Amino acid sequence: MSVSINGTNGVTFNDGSLQKTSAQTGFRNRIINGDMRIDQRFAGAATANTINGYVVDRFQVSQSTSGKLIAQQNAGSVTPPSGFTNYLGVTSQSSYSVTSSDFFLVQHALEGLNISDLAWGTASAKTVTVSFWVRSSLTGTFGGSLRNSANNRSYPFSYSISSANTWEQKTITVSGDTTGTWETGNGAGIWLALGLGAGSTNSGTAGAWAGGFFLSTTGATSVVGTNGATFYITGVQLEAGSTATDFERRPIGTELALCQRYFIAYEFGTGTDTIVNSHFLNGNTQSASLSLPVTMRALPTGEFGTTVGTFWNATSSAALNTATSSFALTKYSFRIGATGNPSAISPAQLILNGTPKLSAEL
Amino acid sequence: MYKKTLFENVVRRTYDNACVPFDPANTDYQAYLKWLSEGNEPLPADEPQLPVVEEVAPVAEEATPTDEPSEG
User: Fold this and answer.
1) Residue B29: closest CA among chain A residues belongs to which residue?
2) What is the mean pLDDT of residues A276-302?
């Protein structure tokens, strides 16, 4: 048996397998849902061309001019890179010439609490390495950036795609920013952007920190510039150190819980599968609560729709009120109430229906 | 556009009827504050709707067995 040890590459065993250097254990990858497996909002369906927000969990598509892009998990149904089952696909809807202030991008926000150990904004700032798999119908030099939430510190970077419609893995190593203010609480700590077209105002010089707001690099390929152009991405990883290690694969339950800190989509359906006890509150409100599967990042915005539930008399099974009228939100639960006479009924229950959504996104 | 609710710490976003809580860390609340700073005012809250309550027929009391001997 032979084992070779190399200070740069790591340890190579006699079967050819490699234990890379700088291997960290546990939550190496600061990116959540980097393999694009979780898609609570769209469940694999395509977005409208007005998309300007999250698509698969934790990844959003932003467009300064609406109607230029659509996005979808596994768009185009191509074979993902080996070891992956999903990717985020973006498709250009026109041949659009960006103006100086335009921006089109895929981006991901890392919460400050998850990057505070990188010590950015101090003399001890740590180097990070971003890696991802990308496939495009276009070739050329593409751009992206890392930036802070105040939008006054940016590191534009470039990478090249040499073969059209071919998965290629890219690696960008960035020395940590020793200046600027970097959020270390529950706000956005680092924004990772991958440009799909950016005007001159939003484009900077690759490979250096700059005191401004840059999303891409000057002269980068514009995906929105070609009608039907595609840009697919998966295996996104941001880790401490100067080496891109293998993509960190986490159990699906763990990854979903990480996503649910920012967004939860319920599917209660139309039947009576989910019933919670309801109580008489403050003399005039029938009120029921449901605990959330995880503690959310902040008090979430609640999209409850019009048919979230129905209060019933638990003894007679008679409907008390077909309309829920008030909602209270915490990081741990949401409460639904119906104000008025139903409060007189006890015991009561609330049958939950519909597809309420809770968002505490960055 | 936003509308007040019966809760003092939640506002409704009218385009999707979402409930936005007053949490400085919530980005939708940050957008609401920006909207307010531009001189906008939320709509007043809806009046509480009195729901229709279905009358529940009283349940007849069941006869209870007794150990008392019957007279007769």
Assistant:
1) A301
2) 87
